[in-house]
Amino acid sequence: MSARFAGAPSAHAGIAPSGAVQARISTVGMNVERAPPEPTAKPAAVREFGYATLNNPGQAIMKLVMAIIKPFKLDEVRDALTPLGVQGLTVTEVKGFGRQKGQTEIYRGAEYEVNFLPKVKIEIVVSDDMADEVMEAIAAAANSGKVGDGKIFALDIERVMRIRTGELDIAAV
Fold it and tell me: What is the pTM of this model?
């Protein structure tokens, strides 16, 4: 370790090995046989806690689907998402440019270059298994076949909490 990082807190501080790993560590060099843990119906990244399915830190079970589209396509996209069971979304008016690099407009006989075009950003948090279907629905509804139709991004979401009820993760979405 270099002197520059001496005394810096470890990124792994507070992380303990799981039960199976701990059992293996404590029995190394001993002739102790242990049965493997029983398989569970839920993936290792998910655990039950009261009314909500919770996520272990660092494991995403939800996706933030973020789309940048043309403003006039918003109603079509919303109508395409409703049958999929999407119950909420956030819409923000934004400006930007991509490959189209803006456009030239004529106003009162003078030519102006518009570098940032108006767009709409849609943000939707869905379960991991719905993300592809939501992305396909947005792409189909927002596609005009012209430059500037937009982009869709999917990002991992580790935790969500509904403020009013305290519901967590999928239950909060």
Answer: 0.62
